[in-house]
Amino acid sequence: LQQQLHGYQCRAAQLMNPGPAAVATVLRGSQDPDCGSCAATFEKVSISMIFASVGLALLESTIGFSEKEAAEVPLWLQTAELVVVGWFTFEFLLRFYAAPAEAQHLSRRRYLVSFCGIIDMLSVFPYWLSKFAGSDSILGHLGSIADLHDEEFRLCRLLRLLLLSNYVPSLGLIMRVLQDSRIQKDLSVALYVTATCWLFFATMLHLAEAGDDRHPEMAHRFRSVLSAMPFTLIHLTGDYPLVDYTVVARLVHVVMLVTAQGLVGVAGGIIASGFTRELKEYRAQERERRRNATKVLGRCVRYWLFRRRWMKLHGALKEQAQRSQEAAAQAKERSSLMFRVMRLVHGHTSIRVRMA
Q1: For the segment 202-259, what is each residue's pLDDT rounded down to a tens digit?
Q2: Which CATH number fits domain 1-167: 1.20.1420.30, 1.10.460.10, 1.20.120.350, 1.25.40.10?
Q3: What are the tens digits of pLDDT across the range 68-125?
Q4: Which residues does the UniProt record annotate as the domain Ion transport (predicted)?
């Protein structure tokens, strides 16, 4: 019911905002079944720009963009950066304009505070703010801050890799699985059990190692439960940088390793079941969409056949009516006095001609 209401709300928003709805169709790319060549081209260019920004970020981290090396930056690299940032700015403006017609936003304010909106702003705003560095305005002060942390802000463009889920549905599968309330409930229970085991084994290792006189470093590391928790967490992951344990502590580690494998297996099973359920629902939706498309196609074919038969019937009825009108007109003409007189005169004239 909530999905149906949300769908009605989205359709109402698209009807109320025809301009943003048209732009949103282009922005959705191949995810829209009715996308055209323009939407497909926009999707390819956007994906290419995202990977180009990643390549530029890697090159910039190698070459360096500090004040001492700014003059040594190749011109082609600066031009490529300008093109990429210009495209991201153009895409941000399009998404901001089309936000009222988007199902996940429905307003421009929600888009600005959403995950995609924040990534878009972090990708373009520091670059343009750095152009105002040196002026006495507020933008100048903000530009100075952006210019001071220029390399850090440039690396924020790597976050645009997360926006590939707008064009590749499989990348958004993880987010949909984690947003499932059933998965969140199961993971919260598993997280609670993991935290309990973490605290329990940290306490056991503290009791086993705090009084170890042969290894004072180990006794210092496990002097309290809080100091033992980081090392216990490392051991729960399966890594063992520390091995100088007492016999009792080693027995605790045996139980801890078995428990850790079970905890990892439980979490993995929960996530795997979420993927299975999500893929099952996705396939069911695809089958329903294809079934609906088949119904629509069959309805169109039946309508075309009905229209064709109706046009034939209408033409036949029209032709029959025209013939009936012509026959009635001829009958009316033959029943008139003038027609009979003309026929009588024509008959006498024909007889005289034959006699002559």
Answers
A1: 999 888 888 877 888 888 888 899 998 998 988 888 877 777 888 888 898 889 988 9
A2: 1.20.120.350
A3: 455 566 778 778 888 988 998 998 898 888 887 776 666 778 888 888 888 888 888 8
A4: 41-247
Q: For the chain, which residues make up each domain, given as ranges?
A: 1-167, 180-355
Q: How high is the pLDDT of residue 203?
A: 92
Query: What is the SS3 assignment for the chain?
Result: CHHHHHHHHHHHHHHHCHHHHHHHHHHHHHHCCCCCHHHHHHHHHHHHHHHHHHHHHHHHHHHCCCCCCHHHCCHHHHHHHHHHHHHHHHHHHHHHHHHHHCCCCCCHHHHHCCHHHHHHHHHHHHHHHHCCCCCCCHHHHHHHHHHHCHHHHHHHHHHHHHHHHHCCHHHHHHHHHHCCHHHHHHHHHHHHHHHHHHHHHHHHHHHHHCCCCCCHHHHHHCCCHHHHHHHHHHHHCCCCCCCCCCHHHHHHHHHHHHHHHHHHHHHHHHHHHHHHHHHHHHHHHHHHHHHHHHHHHHHHHHHHHHHHHHHHHHHHHHHHHHHHHHHHHHHHHHCCHHHHHHHHHHHHHHHHHHHC
The CATH class, in words, for 180-355 is mainly alpha
Give yes or no for residue 186 having a pLDDT over 80.
yes
